[in-house]
Amino acid sequence: MAAVDEARKNLQYQAYEELNGFFSNCEDHVVEIAILPPAIEPPDGFLMRDGSNVGISKKILALAFVEARQRFFEGLKFGNDQSCFNSSRVILLFDPEHITAANYRKRKLLMVWKKESGRDDERSHEFERLEKRELVFLDTILTSPLHRQSKSPTLWHHRFWLINLSLPLVHMHTDMASYSRFLKAELEAVFKAGEHHPKNYYAWQYARRLIVRAEELIQDAPEYRKVYHEVRWSWTKDMTTWCRKHPSDISGWSFLLFLLSKVDNVSERTTIIREVMCYAINFELKNESLWVFIRTALASGILQEEQHTLLDLLRRHVKAISATMTEAARSESSPVVALRWIESSGYQELESSRDELWFSSTIPELQKTSG
C-alpha cells in the first residue's frame, strides 16, 4: 500500500512539473490546450505537444491539480509567493471557479500596481510584464477548446478586473491606433471563446462591460471621439460577420444589438439590419435566435424613420411565402411569427431603451434552455 501511495505521489509530482514547466515556457505567447481522448497516449505519458498546441488527459490534469493545490496552500502558509503564483495556474486550468486561486492572482497584481501608482513616471516594466503575461494566461485558458473553462464566470470576471485596472493606463500612454488594437484584440478573444462554447453569456457580457468602460474613458478625450466612432463601426461590421457565421448563437445577436445601440448614424444601423434581413430571407433561415434579433431590431426605436422601410420588406416577404403555405406551416414560419410579434407588440410605441431591456432580459432565459 505504501508503495502504491509513493508511486501516486511521484506521478502527481511529475504531472505538475510537466504542466507547470509548459506554462513557464509559454508565458509570453498564447497557446491552445485540449483534453485528449482516453485512446490517445502522449509519448512521455504526460503532454502531447504540437507547435503552439498541447494536449493533456483528464487523468494527468487531475493529478497535476492535486499537487498544485497542495503546493498552493503550503505556499500561503509559509509565504512562498512564487510557488502560489505558479500553482494557481494549474489550479485554474483544472477548476476555473477556484475563487481563492483567482483572488490570489489579483492580490499579486494589485500589490505591484499599487507600488507603481504613486510614481510620476510611466508604468514600470514589472507591472507591464505581469499584466501582459496574465492576459496571455487568460487567453490560453479562455480561448482553448475547453468546455467549462471558456465559459467560466470567475475567469471572465478576473479578466475584466485586470482590464479595468490597466485600461486607463493603456489609454493614457498610447495613441488611439494602439488603443483600438488593444480593444480589438479583446473582442477577438471573445469571438474565439464564443466559437468554442456557443451561447457564451459570460464572454459576451465581458465584451459589453469592456465597451462601456472604453467609452467612459473616451469621454475625457474628445479628440479621440471621431476616430473611436470609426473603430466602433468596424467592430459592428466584424460582429455582424461573426453572427452570420453563427446564426443560432443568441448571445452573439444580443451583443450585436447592443453595439447597434451605440452606433450614432441611423443609416449605418439600417445597413446592418437590412444586411441581416436579406441574409435570413435569401437563405430561408429558420434560426430562432436570428429572427429574435430581427424582430427586436425592427420593433425598437433604433431605426427611427427607416423602421417602416424594413418593416415593409418583411411584410412583402411574409406575403410572398404565405401564398404557398398551409395554415399550420404559417403558424410555425419564423418570418410570419416575427411579423406577428412585432405587430402585436405595438411597435410604433416601443422605445429603444424599453426594447433593449426586454431583449437583454429574454436572452439569458433562452440560454438557460439551449446553452
TrEMBL record:
Organism domain of life? Eukaryota
A GO molecular-function descriptor: protein prenyltransferase activity
Q: Which SUPFAM superfamilies match?
A: Protein prenylyltransferase
For the keyword Transferase, the answer is yes
Q: Which residues cross the membrane?
A: none
What Pfam families does the entry give?
PPTA
> GO cellular component annotations, sorted alphabetically?
cytoplasm
Keyword DNA-binding among UniProt keywords:
no
Sorted alphabetically, which InterPro entries does this protein's record hold? Prenyl_trans_a
What are the alphabetically sorted keywords of the record?
Prenyltransferase, Repeat, Transferase
* Family the UniProt entry places it in: Belongs to the protein prenyltransferase subunit alpha family.
* Protein's name according to its UniProt entry: Protein prenylyltransferase
Q: Which organism is it from?
A: Lophiostoma macrostomum CBS 122681
